[in-house]
Design brief:
The protein is an alpha/beta fold and 262 residues long. The chain is built from eight helices and seven strands. A seven-stranded parallel beta sheet has the order 3-2-1-4-5-6-7, with helices on both faces. Helix 1 links the parallel strand 1 and strand 2. The longest helix is centred in the middle third of the chain and has 29 residues, at 106-134.
Length: 262
């Protein structure tokens, strides 16, 4: 298989922790030059220092806040003018807070829509023309298994993730002819800071200990464990390689078999 990304440029969002950071590390290991995008300059620089660079890669950082789409648009405009073309875009940002959809404030939906779909659209519009000219593009959206089966207690997230999934499928139809693929990776329960927060919230509501809730959640997974962020990153990285060139417009669960639907 051709897994070599030497000479390719990748932009990875939310890349200072969790799945985003693990993905940036894996892409760099495969030879890509990686631009790390997040809102914390110090954390970005720390992550950059961890990236493999012995294949001549030139790694960079880009500071932007997904809570402010106009801020992201301006940061990209200044950056892309100098650094295009990009070949790989990994759209990844933290999920909305939990809670029932019926109880959610309208503002919660607006904020989540901006942070996920609108910012993703800004990123794609900034990079897609360069990908088309190169005849090589990989757009990978890290979303959630909720696009296959809504997750109880994540009303806003279920709604917005579904919108992103259908946006992605639409783009895959529009860009496929140019050698640009668009796919979604759907992580299951992954050992990240977000999962820790979810477990603690569930435990409090159920009047159970954190350990009890963790064991309960693991019992719902055929693999009987949570994913490591690197396992999700491996799936993302494969979709970014030349060998994945005919995989387009799919939802790829990386969930240990938890999702009840095919």
């Amino acid at each position: 298989m051709d897994l070599n990304l030497k000479g390719k440029r990748a932009l990875v969002c939310g890349s200072t922790q969790g799945i985003g950071k693990a993905t940036a590390i894996e892409l760099a290991n495969l030879g890509a030059s990686v631009t790390l995008l997040a809102r914390n300059q110090e954390a970005l620089e720390e992550t950059k220092a961890d990236l493999f660079s012995s294949s001549g890669q030139q790694h960079e950082v880009l500071v932007a806040d997904f809570a402010k789409p106009d801020n992201l648009r301006q940061a990209l405009a200044d950056h892309v003018d100098v650094n295009n073309p990009y070949h790989i875009l990994v759209n990844n940002t933290g999920g909305p807070p939990g809670g029932l959809a019926i109880d959610a404030e309208l503002e919660a939906f607006r904020i989540a829509f901006n942070q996920h779909l609108i910012c993703n659209q800004i990123l794609v519009q900034s990079l897609a023309e360069g990908m088309k000219k190169e005849g090589y593009g990989r757009i990978i959206n890290v979303i959630s298994t909720s696009v296959k089966a809504p997750i109880p207690g994540l009303g806003v997230s279920n709604t917005i993730r579904g919108a992103v999934a259908n946006w992605s499928k639409t783009l895959s139809n529009e860009l496929g002819q140019f050698g640009v693929t668009v796919n979604n990776v759907l992580p299951g329960a992954t050992a990240t800071q977000r999962l820790t927060s979810i477990i603690e919230n569930k435990a409090n509501k159920a009047a159970k200990s954190v350990d009890e809730m963790e064991m309960e959640m693991k019992s719902e997974i055929p693999a009987r464990r949570f994913a490591d962020a690197g396992e999700v990153a491996s799936a993302i990285a494969f979709l970014a390689t030349p060998s994945a060139g005919y995989i387009n417009g799919i939802n790829l669960p990386v969930d240990g078999g938890r999702t009840a639907s095919l």
